[in-house]
């Protein structure tokens, strides 16, 4: 165990942030080698790309999906699509390691029966951010959102049910999993601009895996 692991071992593994918002510190660390290997396979099969918002802005994150559908944004709006618009092929299959990780995290958080059918992969370089928004493109809001942070630390914002509610700021470290569902499923959330940093496994990047049941 290195010093980093030792310092984190002092923190409780599970933190209840708000009703139905649960943070599992460093949950991924025991599985990280398999997760990172499978991440490489997915992004070799379908490249990361910058999407454009319906308003015409190029997003600062680069994105790809795996699973039965993928989250896409273009001038026509946000939606889930069964084909990758870049390749016109189905998205890569969701690796079993991804699905198991997401289901285990949801179980620990108290959301048994999470059935993720899509995983959105976002890569953040220094300065990349995600504005406050609600996740509303999914069909079944009784299913939670499972968000896995890898690499460089980012400050996540967890807000209320209207955009102007002042968000909580949560630093998310490599291996942390944040789960929100139930009464908190439609909270506004976002990511502050990522500060320069470096992580042994992911270099200067933050990578986020967001698991959802879209369909
Ligand atoms: C994150 N992403 O990348 C958080 N939500 O840490 C999101 O909350 C998100 O990237 C809806 C659609 C795309 C996203
Ligand atoms: Fe979101």
CATH topology: Jelly Rolls
User: Structural class of the helix and strand makeup?
Assistant: alpha+beta
Strand content: 25-35%
Mean pLDDT equals: 96
CATH superfamily: Alpha-ketoglutarate-dependent dioxygenase AlkB-like
Unique bound compounds: N-[(3-hydroxypyridin-2-yl)carbonyl]glycine, fe (iii) ion
Domain module count: 1
Name the helix and strand elements from N-terminus to C-terminus, one letter apiece.
Answer: HEEHEEEHEEEEEEEE
Distance between the termini: 41 Å
Strand adjacency order, main sheet: 1-2-11-8-13-6-3
User: What is the class in the CATH system?
Assistant: Mainly Beta
Number-wise, the strands total 13
Named CATH architecture: Sandwich
Ranges where pLDDT stays below 50 over 5 or more residues in a row are none
User: Tell me about the biggest sheet?
Assistant: 7 strands, antiparallel
